[in-house]
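Per your request, structure below.
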């Protein structure tokens, strides 16, 4: 997530000065990974990510670099040896009304692969606390932690994690009789082509021009061969419900729960998350055939600001769903 922020330099910020004193303090000291780097965890990760790179299998397997943080996680029982600086910092922010938090970004640097049997150690410090910032979410502070991951004395990678701890901004109340607008998708340079296709009522799938692998969601590179060049193919629109959930809570102003959200497996072999329509939410089942359609939401009405939102949804084919709906 990118938060549009501006500094509030020039304003007296006693809290900010107190927060700055936490920079460089340890959030955890000499932490140890709960497991050695092992084949089952690598296999589970690769299956979840759909990564079939042969470097991650066999007796000489390495761990996918993006697993770096996974080896440092403490699970439900946590880690021993944690310092209190992180909790102290958050307590100060909570007392100042910055009770909400959102992750903004992370950065990882890889120095050497992790191999089967490696014992991971790590140290985490509070690297920086920003000046007070005002964002669309509210006013608060960006806090960046840095975790150095080691095997023995060797630094193997670095993980930086940044959050915004903020006091929520007051939401403007919508005029009576108007409906709340749906959240807009975050469009960036990696996925802009997908949303441009949706506007034209086309569901475009990325295709690697090096190995021909299709991928969704859109990514800057191929997760099969690493190639950076790609083109697109248009989905036929046919698919099946691979999995689904029924949303009951929490309620959002622009939505009417309960409703079904499906993981749709397209005829082309990739999967996409979207709403399942055409049958009652309690009639959705795994394996139901569906067909793509496009819906427009938030049509302008009178003085409403902004244009409509076009989204791909999937309608259950009634003739193969027992005539329900």
């Amino acid at each position: 997530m990118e938060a549009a922020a501006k500094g509030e330099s020039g304003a007296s910020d006693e809290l900010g000065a107190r927060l700055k004193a936490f920079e460089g303090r340890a959030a955890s000291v000499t932490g140890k990974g709960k497991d050695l780097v092992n084949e089952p965890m690598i296999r589970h990760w690769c299956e979840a990510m759909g990564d079939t790179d042969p470097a991650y299998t066999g007796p000489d397997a390495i761990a996918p670099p993006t697993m770096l943080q996974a080896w440092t996680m403490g699970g439900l029982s946590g880690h021993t040896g944690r310092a209190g600086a992180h909790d102290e910092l958050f307590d100060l922010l909570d007392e100042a009304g910055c009770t909400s938090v959102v992750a903004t970004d992370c950065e990882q640097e890889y120095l050497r692969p992790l191999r089967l049997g490696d014992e991971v150690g790590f140290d985490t410090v509070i690297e920086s606390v920003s000046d007070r910032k005002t964002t669309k979410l509210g006013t608060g502070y960006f806090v960046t932690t840095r975790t150095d991951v080691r095997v023995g004395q060797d630094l193997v990678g670095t993980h930086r994690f940044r959050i915004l701890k903020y006091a929520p901004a007051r939401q403007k109340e919508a005029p009576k009789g108007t409906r709340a607008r749906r959240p807009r998708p975050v469009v960036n340079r990696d996925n802009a082509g997908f949303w441009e296709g949706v506007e034209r009522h086309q569901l475009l799938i990325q295709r690697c021009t090096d190995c021909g692998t299709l991928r969704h969601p859109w990514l800057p590179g191929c997760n099969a061969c690493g190639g950076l060049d790609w083109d697109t193919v248009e989905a036929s629109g046919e698919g099946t419900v691979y999995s689904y959930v029924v949303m009951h809570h929490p309620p959002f102003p622009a939505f009417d729960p309960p409703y079904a959200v499906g993981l749709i497996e397209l005829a082309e072999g990739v999967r996409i998350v979207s709403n399942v329509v055409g049958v009652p939410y309690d009639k959705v089942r795994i394996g139901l055939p569906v067909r793509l359609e496009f819906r427009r939401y938030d049509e302008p009405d009178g003085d409403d600001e902004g244009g409509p939102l076009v989204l791909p949804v999937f309608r259950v084919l009634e003739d193969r769903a027992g005539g329900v709906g």
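The chain has two domains: 12-168, 192-320.

Regards,
D.
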